[in-house]
Write a structure and sequence with these properties.
By secondary structure, the chain is of the alpha/beta class. The chain has two domains: 109 residues, Aspartate Aminotransferase, domain 1; 215 residues, Type I PLP-dependent aspartate aminotransferase-like (Major domain) (Aspartate Aminotransferase, domain 2, 3-Layer(aba) Sandwich). The strands form three sheets. It has a seven-stranded mixed sheet with strand order 2-8-7-6-5-3-4, sandwiched between helices. Helix 8 links the parallel strand 6 and strand 7. Helix 2 packs across helix 10, helix 3 runs parallel beside helix 10 and helix 6 runs parallel beside helix 7. The longest helix has 21 residues. The structure holds 4'-deoxy-4'-aminopyridoxal-5'-phosphate. 4'-deoxy-4'-aminopyridoxal-5'-phosphate binds next to helix 4. InterPro entries: Aminotrans_II_pyridoxalP_BS (IPR001917), Aminotransferase_I/II_large (IPR004839), HisP_aminotrans (IPR005861), PyrdxlP-dep_Trfase (IPR015424), PyrdxlP-dep_Trfase_major (IPR015421), PyrdxlP-dep_Trfase_small (IPR015422). Belongs to the class-II pyridoxal-phosphate-dependent aminotransferase family. Histidinol-phosphate aminotransferase subfamily. Its cofactor is pyridoxal 5'-phosphate. GO terms for molecular function: histidinol-phosphate transaminase activity; pyridoxal phosphate binding.
Length: 339
């Protein structure tokens, strides 16, 4: 047995340090589904045949999402997390490489590397917005261009006109809107105008379903059809489909929670305005080298590196968690002599 050399170039997955009560490192929703919503999901499950494979192209769930948007299920594809869909989108299209815009979500590069697809990086500008002209220049032989808006880990929405510049080249654009609910803005309707636009969304953030693992794309029928020819057939199970069907019935709950998270996000930002970037997502980018200090206090955040060395990304938590975070960061600033 000889494991491929490429595999060794990947970092092993690190488990987040256990035993810390406050977990603000994965941009999850801090709110679990209420018991009564779980009960509704359990009711759905009671009716299902656990011995049978799920629908091969996840039609029940695609229909539920399509109804939610008022579009056809032929424009919706679902996956085991947005991540699974990204794993296909890096190689589904003809071209020589993918384009990414660092600092951004790491999984685009991860799956490209796994498939031995080169990555052309067009860094974000100083203000963390994309450079539409520079991307357009690089997009000619690209399989796809990956743009996250709001971007992770910087938190900002990308300007529509810059995205349009890239779309107008005809290149495939994967617009990753994992955090769109927190921005209150989405460009998904542009799929009607641009067959080269693929909008990626997830149930892991605003919908409180990170543990269920599911995400989806909204795109042209041709893209959806192509994806279902190659996608792992049964990656979205019956339990996932039942959970999604139920949470979509309770979007008002999602909206109320999103509003609460935004309120908390702004509260944290106000306390550390000098060190915190504006955010359109459920997390904040902070120019504070406080990862270890916070860990000592039992608060886990995301430590960033490279261009964002010395920065942390902090997911907005529950009110009491945010209070602890604010207290700890105030103490950090005092200790560091910046307070
Ligand atoms: N895109 C971005 C920008 C993300 O931050 C995440 C989650 N960290 C995802 C996609 C994928 O989320 P999931 O696989 O949980 O759907």
């Amino acid at each position: 047995m000889k494991i491929r050399e490429l595999v060794k170039s990947f970092e092993p997955y690190r488990v987040t340090e256990g035993g810390h009560p406050i977990r603000l490192d994965k941009n999850e929703s801090p709110y679990d589904l209420p018991g009564w919503v779980k009960e509704e999901i359990f009711e759905e499950l009671r009716e299902l045949s656990f011995n049978r494979y799920p629908h091969i192209t996840s039609m029940p769930m695609r229909k539920a999402i399509a109804r939610f948007y008022g579009i056809s299920p032929e424009n919706v594809a679902v996956g085991n997390g947005g991540d699974e869909l990204i794993s296909y989108l890096v190689w589904l299209f003809e071209g020589d490489y993918i384009v990414t815009t660092p600092p951004s979500f790491g999984m685009y590069g991860f799956y490209a590397k796994l498939n031995e697809i080169p990555v052309v990086e067009v860094p974000l500008k100083e203000d963390f917005t994309i450079d539409g002209d520079a991307i357009a220049e690089k997009s000619k032989n690209a399989r796809a261009v990956f743009i996250a808006s709001p971007n992770n880990p910087t938190g900002n929405l990308q300007p529509e006109e810059e995205i349009i510049k890239v779309l107008d080249t005809g290149a495939v654009v994967v617009l990753d809107e994992a955090y769109a609910e927190f921005a209150g803005k989405s460009l998904w309707r542009l799929i009607e105008e641009y067959p080269n636009l693929i909008v990626l969304r997830t149930f892991s953030k605003a919908f409180s379903l990170a543990g269920v693992r599911t995400g989806y794309i909204l795109a042209n029928e041709e893209v959806v059809d192509a994806l279902y020819r190659v996608k792992s057939p049964f990656s979205v199970g019956i339990m996932t489909m039942a959970a999604v069907k139920v949470v979509l019935r309770h979007y008002d709950l999602v909206e109320r929670r999103v509003a609460k998270i935004i309120e908390e996000r702004e509260r944290i930002r106000k306390a550390f305005r000098e060190f915190t970037y504006p955010s359109d997502a459920n997390f904040l980018l902070m120019r504070l080298n406080a990862y270890e200090f916070l860990l000592e206090k039992g608060i886990v955040v995301r430590k960033l590196s490279g261009r964002l060395n010395g920065h942390i990304r902090v997911t907005v938590g529950r009110k009491w968690e945010n209070r602890k975070l604010i207290e700890a960061l105030r103490e950090y600033l005092e200790v560091e002599g910046c307070g």
